[in-house]
Please model this.
Amino acid sequence: MAAKGASSVPVYTYVCKSVLESLRRKVAAGESVTSADVLALTAVDEAADSEELMPVDIRERLDRSAEAVRRAATHPEVDAASYIRAAELFAANPEGRPERDRPVAMTAQVWREKAIDSCSGDESASDGDEEEEESEAAGEGAEEEEDEPDGAPSAVPVAAEAVASAAGRGGGARGRSDGAGPSEAKSKQKRPRLAPG
Model:
């Protein structure tokens, strides 16, 4: 049964299958469960290559109240029971998702290889995105320059010349083709530019 206000969207993660089965037996028999037992359940990074990992649906764990989280932190058997429930929820597949869209059990070695592939794929995609953004930004700058009418500088050089002139550093119109000096640049800066239309 879903917790009150629980998300209807599955949230999958992997746990060590052998540890989960051990915790099921302990909880069913009323045996003591330790925090170390629960940590071992989720320690998939440290699992032996041959360890089988199984997916679970932890949406209800994520929707717990603060009080329930505190209780699970001080009562490992409660925390273990929430993972057992997550395994049951995954098996029940309440949304009826097709199996091809759901994660599958795999060894820790395969899981690590997939994690590495996923990370390197993300880096390649982000590198490509950055290069594309830089290329687009350069293209936009060139388009803006082309939009300026001949002899009319863009607002940035005019403002830079005005600042340089006010500071006593500028003597001429840097990068200008109309021969206007700093004082003319200031007066041009004060006049609003009308958009072509």
